[in-house]
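Predict the structure of Site-specific recombinase XerD.
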Amino acid sequence: MTPLVPRPSAELSTDRHDPRDDWPSEARALADHLTAIYGDRDPLPTVAGGWCARQRSRHTRRAYARAFLRWETYTREAGIHPLQARLPLADAYASYLETAPTMRRVKGGRRNEMTPTGPPLSDSGRAQALSAAGSFYTYAVRVQAAPASPFTSINRPLIDPDHSPTEGMLPEETAALIETAHTWHPRSYALVTLLYLLGPRVDEILSLNAGQLGYDRGHRTLPLTLKGGKRKPVPVPPLALDALLTYLNGRRDGPLFATSTGQRWTEPQVWKHLRMLARRAGIPQANSIKPHTLRHGFITDSLENKVPLQDVQDAVGHADPRTTQRYNRRRRRLDDHPAYALAASLAVRLRPGDA
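Done. Here is the predicted structure for Site-specific recombinase XerD.
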């Protein structure tokens, strides 16, 4: 048998199957974007696309592609090819991320129009950005496209293992949000109840289709694709099921959550809609609430209701119970903070009218 000899993409014969056509759409989009910049004879588009394609979940592929493009833009503006980057440039990039603005959608602008006016990445966001870039170079070294990773010895942000950036809500505030969604629209009510009662990540719900509502041993189920690509059926409790069936109104095709034109509801649209509902419900952090806030509530409220930690951990798909417990510790750090006891002690010592 005559072995196939690797050739630049421009030399691929039209009568041969291009394996890149089998990549997930996120990997193909990343490769196409880089090809438009570097040309089809440069190895970077294929290496980056192959690395992206290896990620198990759609959510990870999208996040990694965004992170890589941020790094690629930085290297290109510095006049250095990404496959020739070294540790000093990676160190400079880590410092750059501390103050660089993030992209924010233009209010009232064209669809998907973005502007760099958002706040800098959080410590965890910077750690994830550096981790994604490091993951790319681990792959690039493995396929002999780069001599070494410039991120191997990078100084990464120190992350408090007990810190969760998500702002929580009181159970009464969650109930107010759900009641507001109920009065607003059946779709709103179905989404909010599923996010709270099942505790999924928002992309796990939005990626579902209406026909995937199933049945298993007396339970109505939805097949969530968890982080890492693992698929797991989860039961839909009666309250959420009633809300979902009312919204679907017999529909069994198309996206589970669709817009008025039949398109799949997107994460940015859900974020915007959720904040509108939160403002109407009078939630204090309405302008910063996000779908993950309801996942946070699922975890903390379940633990407060004495659901075993291992059951909550399994429900949300955490590999480590410490990740699950982190949400609860954040709440207790606030509830049990010494400031409250100290303020109460001070109040009884102050003259009337001074407190």
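The first helix runs from residue 25 to 38.
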